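Q: For a teaching handout, I want to show students what a protein-ligand complex looks like in token form. Below are the inputs, and the small molecule is nicotinamide-adenine-dinucleotide. Please produce the holo structure.
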Amino acid sequence: MKTETASFRALVTGATSGIGLAVAKGLLSLGHTVFMTGRNGPVLDRLLLEANDRGWKASGLACDLSRREEVERLIDTATEVLSGRIDILVNNAGIATFGSIEETTPEDFERLIAVNLRAPYLLSRAILPIMKRQREGLIVNISSVAGLEAWAGSSLYSMTKFALRGLTGSLLAEGAPFGVKTVAICPGYVATPLVSGAPVPETEMIQPEDILRTILYLKDLSPAAVSGDIVLKRLGGL
Ligand code: NAD
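A: Here is the structure, written as tokens, with nicotinamide-adenine-dinucleotide included.
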């Protein structure tokens, strides 16, 4: 049985905070190469300096994923820096807005679609062919339990997270013949700044490192084993 994963190259979006930060740091600390991207340039610069001080193989680019041209620049830069090889793409960056449908605005709609959906689409569209040529790869889309179920007040967020699972299904089917897997991870509350106002204490939430563990588990599965959705529920509720 395989117990060790060889060193790989990953691209992680939303790597400056929360889940993405835990995933990027965790992969780097295990000796993997990570291209990090986030919206906050100064935070990203500090993280890259810290990582390089530790001898980690980190690189990155600040990017606003709501802007199509910036996503395209990110794709060009990341593929060049990673020398055209990408073993894992983590489409993690995301934003949320909650409120009744009357409280949402068309501007919120555009923003959530751009960040939560168009950016993963553009990144997957560019990187799946690279993985197909490699004949291996893993695309991880961070959806949510709100991508499995919708509630009053979750319309825009749920809409994007349901759709991300739709994208996942097609990527999985198109990549599978080439050894490329795509998975949607659907967690309940994870202790990150995104849910700082949630009515659940942080200590009772899923930890960001649990998403790292899930990705490592997925990466270590044998070639034929795959899962479209991984649902991570919280003990005691959503
Ligand atoms: P977070 O707010 O801590 O981090 C979000 C990250 O996304 C940051 O790095 C930020 O820079 C990046 N980002 C946001 N907008 C961006 C933009 N326009 N351009 C570039 N980067 C941008 O949130 P988190 O909880 O770590 O969320 C990560 C993902 O997990 C999201 O997709 C979120 O929907 C999903 N998720 C979170 C929870 C939770 O309870 N925290 C539960 C289920 C799913």
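A: Two things your students might notice: The chain has one domain: 9-232. The pocket of nicotinamide-adenine-dinucleotide is lined by residues 14, 16-20, 38-40, 63-66, 92-96, 115, 142, 144, 187, 189-190, 192-195 (CB under 6 Å).
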